[in-house]
Design brief:
Elements: E1 4-6, H1 24-37, H2 40-88, H3 91-95, H4 106-121, E2 125-134, E3 137-140, E4 163-164, H5 169-177, E5 181-182, E6 187-189, E7 192-202, E8 208-217, H6 218-308, H7 314-344, E9 349-351, H8 357-374
Antiparallel strand pairs: 1-9, 2-3, 2-8, 3-4, 5-7, 6-7, 7-8
Helix pairs in contact: 2-6, 6-7
Length: 402
């Protein structure tokens, strides 16, 4: 029974099952990667830009989060300071202060003392003061500020009974809600730009005696935010530098890969040219050998025919047989070389067929008989056990024994 297996260049698994086709997605990815490697500069710039974009968005998100966190922390701090200041105000002494004439009174000194201490303790606080709501409007009561103001604005110190027109919505909200509030945004009045916190001061009967105001300069408030801006700028610069380094590294890598692929393609083309040249050489040499070998075999066949007709001696007949057999052997070697070339080209077909081992052994003996005779030796094969077909009489050994 013969089974023929054809060698092809298609993919096949090691267990003999047909190979699976390469997925199109993988092929598409390889195509995109190959296209990208053809332009290392574009690839490096693209990778660097993508990395910087992600880093920039990340830094922007961190900046916004940190800014919101700092704003919230500053406002909570102002609100907490205002509540603490409100609890420190002596209510009874504060209730006796109404006009500028009360500024030097013992009640005024008693009411101003905790606010002065607070102002000394917290240098970031620009102004600390108390105010109350009257039928005529909002009027200042206690103001511990004593330092002179710049020429561009009035004296920082405000005596009791001075009316004030509020520009901060948080001040009005604190009066209406009788609760602690803080500025939602920077506001400006004729003393400057501020962010403020307010808290009510309650009397023993639960009524509101006054409110405490805590002002932080807008410049101080914005300095906290500028620290976040500076950190964001530094982070963005680092991200840009890192993106440039990654872009350069990607460019170098793509350039080296491109050079490697070019070298691999050149080596493959060179190997294909060498293999093609080898195949052509084998074909030419095989043709050159087979042509004279055909003539030799033809004359050997003529000698065998003459021996059958008795025209030549037995020795000549045996010599013709040896020539024919060895010529067939050489022709088989040539065919094997051609088959090897076909295997490399993926065009070789292998077929299983029964063989006669006795005939192969007999032919081997005949092939070596001449060398054995030259060394005064004898080379022969045994017939083997019964039941096997003996070799053909025409393939019997010939030679001289020592």
């Amino acid at each position: 029974m013969e089974r023929e297996t054809e060698f092809t260049s298609s993919f096949a698994s090691t267990d003999g099952t047909p190979g699976l086709p390469v997925p199109r997605t993988r092929g598409s990815i390889r195509s995109v990667a190959s296209l990208a490697l053809r332009r290392p500069r574009v690839l490096g710039a693209t990778v660097g830009l993508i990395l910087f974009t992600f880093a920039a968005f990340g830094m922007l998100a961190v900046h916004n989060f940190a800014s919101d966190a700092i704003e919230s922390a500053v406002r909570r701090s102002l609100q907490g300071v205002a509540i603490a200041a409100a609890r420190s105000v002596p209510v009874e002494a504060h209730a006796r202060i109404h006009t500028a004439a009360d500024e030097g009174s013992p009640a005024y000194q008693q009411a101003i003392a905790p606010l002065e201490e607070l102002q000394r303790t917290l240098p970031e606080i620009r102004y600390v003061y108390t105010f109350r709501q009257t039928a005529d409007g909002i009027e200042f009561v206690v103001d511990p500020t004593t330092e002179p103001a710049p020429v561009s604005r009035p004296d920082d110190h405000t005596p009791p009974g001075t009316f004030y027109k509020p520009t901060d919505a948080a001040m009005i909200a604190a009066i209406h809600r009788k609760a602690a509030t803080v500025s939602g945004e920077v506001y400006t009045d004729h003393w400057g730009s501020f962010v403020s916190g307010y808290a009510p001061v309650f009397a023993a009967d639960g009524t509101v005696e006054c409110f405490v105001g805590i002002d932080m300069d807008a410049a101080t408030y914005q300095a906290h935010l500028r620290a976040i801006d500076a950190a964001t700028g530094v982070g963005t610069a680092i991200a840009a530098l890192g993106s440039l380094l990654v872009a350069y590294a990607t460019f170098c890598w793509a350039t080296s890969r491109r050079a490697e692929e070019a070298a691999m393609v050149a080596a493959r083309e060179e190997a294909l040219r060498a293999n093609h040249a080898k195949s052509e050489f084998i074909a030419n040499v095989s043709h050159e050998i087979r042509t004279p070998m055909t003539a030799i075999l033809g004359y050997a066949e003529i000698m065998r025919e003459d021996a059958a007709l008795g025209r030549i001696s037995d020795l000549g007949s045996c010599a013709g047989e040896v020539i024919a057999r060895n010529g067939q052997h050489i022709l088989g070697v040539v065919n094997d070389i051609i088959d090897a070339a076909r295997v490399e080209a993926g065009e070789m077909s292998i077929a299983r067929a029964p063989i006669d081992l006795r005939a192969i052994a007999h032919d081997a003996v005949q092939f070596l008989a001449a060398r054995a005779a030259a060394r005064a030796s004898r080379c022969a094969s045994s017939r083997g056990s019964a039941g096997r077909q003996p070799p053909s009489p025409t393939r019997s050994a010939c030679g001289r024994s020592s």
